[in-house]
Hints:
The complex is a heterodimer.
Chain A: H1 16-23, H2 29-32, E1 36-40, H3 44-56, E2 59-63, E3 81-82, H4 94-104, H5 111-131, E4 156-157, H6 163-180, E5 184-187, E6 190-198, E7 201-209, E8 215-219, E9 222-225, H7 246-253, E10 258-259, E11 264-270, E12 293-297, E13 315-316, H8 318-322, H9 332-344, E14 356-359, H10 361-374, H11 382-408, E15 417-426, E16 429-430, E17 443-445, H12 463-483, H13 497-516, H14 522-537, H15 543-563, H16 575-599, H17 623-626, E18 628-633, E19 642-647
Helix pairs in contact in A: 3-6, 3-12, 4-5, 5-12, 10-11, 14-15, 14-16, 15-16
Chain B: E1 11-19, E2 28-37, H1 43-56, E3 78-80, E4 83-84, E5 106-111, E6 119-121, E7 124-125, H2 128-137, H3 157-167, H4 174-178, H5 185-197, H6 205-218, H7 229-233, H8 241-259
Parallel strand pairs in B: 1-5
Antiparallel strand pairs in B: 1-2, 3-4, 3-5, 6-7
Amino acid sequence: MATLNSNVPPGPLADKWRTYKSNLKLVNPANKRKYEVVIVGAGLAGASAAATLSELGYRVKCIVFHDSPRRAHSIAAQGGINAAKNYQNDGDSVHRLFYDTLKGGDYRARESNVHRLAEVSVNIIDQCVAQGVPFAREYGGLLANRSFGGAQVSRTFYARGQTGQQLLLGAYSALSKQVGAGAVELVTQHEMVDLVVVDGHARGVITRDLVTGKFHRHSGEAVIIATGGYGNVFNLSTYARGSNTTAIWRAYKRGACFANPCYTQIHPTCIPVSGDYQSKLTLMSESLRNDGRIWVPKKNEDCKKAPADIPEEDRDYFLERIYPSFGNLAPRDVSSRAAKRMCDEGRGVGETGLGVYLDFAEAIQRYGKQVAARANLVNPSKEKILELGEAAVKERYGNLFDIYHEITNESAYKQPMRIYPAVHYTMGGLWVDYNLMSNVPGLFVLGEANFSDHGANRLGASALMQGLADGYFVVPYTIGNYLATLKPNSRPSTDAPEFKAAEENAASIVKRLLAAKGKEPVNHYHKKLGKLMWDYCGMSRTKEGLEKAILEIGKLREEFWANVNVPGSGDNMNQALERANRVADFIELGQLMCRDALAREESCGGHFREEHQYPDGECKRDDEKFAHVAAWEFQGEGSVPLRNIEPLNYEFTKMSVRSYK
Amino acid sequence: MVAEKPSTKNISVTIRVWRQPSAAQPGRFVDYPARDLNPNMSLLEMLDVVNDQLERIGEDPIAFAHDCREGICGTCSLVIDGKPHGPHHGVASCQTYMRSFEDGSVITIEPFRARPFPVIKDLITDRSAFDKIQQAGGFISIRTGSACDANATPIPKETADLAMDAAQCIGCGACVAACKNASAMLFVSAKVSQLGLLPQGQPERDSRVLNMVAKMDELGFGNCTNQYECSAACPKLISHDFIARMNRDYIAASFRAAFKPKPAAGSGGGA
């Protein structure tokens, strides 16, 4: 049984991090170069950690499966990044950001971690501006903000609809500076395929060179995994096609506990599925809910009508109706489930009936009139107002409207967008303590790959905040505390038997995949897995459904290994093999997610068990039995994994029923 | 052939694809049929479907670079019917949809072609040269934790917006593929301009442009043709005006470097 000590420091909540930081062990500057840290992943968390650790003087190796660190999927985040700067003077504070995030996560995150996140949020904005990140500004030259779901203040910083891109390029430039200076060794197009554990400590990784197919061994005093989330287990999601679970899954199989795997975020505003060929779903940023109004027809028979033909009184603006105080800015899990309920009632729109409208007509009118008044136009015509309003909306959301048009061939200026929830983020991940170290000493896990800060639901604009907080401002302190306990230059030789065994393990998986020579392509199995997961472990879950899914996924796994066809060989670039290697892990992970969802007999945040709800359809938590983190421990192939528990002790906040009404 | 009006019915096409097992081996075009395609399918999804068919019969699927499939990561890099990123302006290869093509057309798909971007396999090229240029100077040297308050330096909105226009570059390399000189000046000028426009980028402004241009030349990218194919092919429509801005910066920096007074050497050590 794994030991799960959260190592949360004592003391008042607001002082914990500050006090703890000043008591951490240090590594002397001349010794830092004698410690090597192997970092896997170079998204926001990985790149910021690599840059910062090498600035401190550690030897850093940064490994990515992409051809460049700039391709990591952090780049696709649209809306923004939260920070408790209170530049708007609207009452924001570190405590408020902490509280909103904790409540948004439905009281399933660790208090101390969330408070630290809120504290360092302000440093992140300073750091990024200094790097040259061109955040949106007001005419006076100061930084602009907007609102996101689950908050009643404007604390979100943004760079058009491309905030993730700009923040990642900022971290990438910091990393590039260190690579150019010879302080970071950058290894591209290498995929981590195993973790090397020596005497119970993580001491390196095995990678497969995706161009040559060769395996490589990397040794270090510590390993950092920052490889992102695992939402592609659903096949269709807003993730990049390459996003995968292999690094964290193989670490799990080497003893790292996997925490809350069933906590999945389903984002309410994505472009609906249109056909079986589809490879990914596209997000329409939450920022659109600042101005767009979400509705469905009141009457089922109106669903096939053109939206313009449905009069105002026959429309149900259901978020505004059900959640009057947050309205269209209700949190993601709440909004997604509400949309699903409307579609389940038969009031969904579009060809498949799985869609709701996101309507900008009112915003276009409002902005049109505002602009006309500012320009002193007397009795402007309807057309003029429309023209001015469309221009104003375009300035705010133009690139998102363009993406919508490219995909659907419809103009959202002229008719409402059709949207539907889609898999977007995974709150679960490898278990880590307050130091962001897993239960395998020496293995640190950052960003979406860990489970730490978002509880059972993540608020908008908090993923970027967490990734950068972990990489810039947390792990550079906490890893020193671990490294200081080791002798300098104590990393093992890559000839050690543990390295050999790990490489052989990774190679044997590749060999088996190539040897199957069955009848179906990898995608066939990925699609099947995705459908099972979406149907039984998606927006709503039941005992029967999950039990069925566990069995079905077991069968799918057998079928996959018996009947997959991976052409070609393992000694050159082979994209079918890359996919097969990842899908094999997704299948196993999918089963664990279902087990976790089955064991958690309550509803919280993104995890909704139909058996546990209030009469109005809201989540019914069970704090007595489930106020804990479930951390699953691998028990060997074919054995049921062990469910360990870390109790969540709320010292400072009262767990209450989460209400946005 | 590009459809004049977007198709609404399913279409069938032939794709003529560049197949090349590795950099060391010669490549050639191979035709594949792609039938009964939903017009809302993306071009990359069409390739997925063709690849599934190839894998089912144990043939090597067409290797192509892709990741986010929403036009922001810069991984996809196809020359479609002779144009980097295909027939439409301001989109990446992954944002090209089958409705753009006529039923029965032959679509030619090639990798980006430029000497500094050698082919790795089929449609995938090695674009690590861009990372090397970035490493030569595409940054502001700011140690983590040493920044002052973000609002300490106001920046006029117009300046920040212009910097953002340049910063949108996704590093795909279409500008290089579109240029007959394989010039990387649009890519380099976008980063030089973004950082050079902002007050934070001033201390290293000269060294940045000199070092990045030197690295660009060293890696074998050509000079600007002044024909602006780069901007036309750019999925983010980055303006060639930034090239002019970089040239001004470069000249000024070269002069300053030539006439710069040297600081007294050997001030290190001390107690």
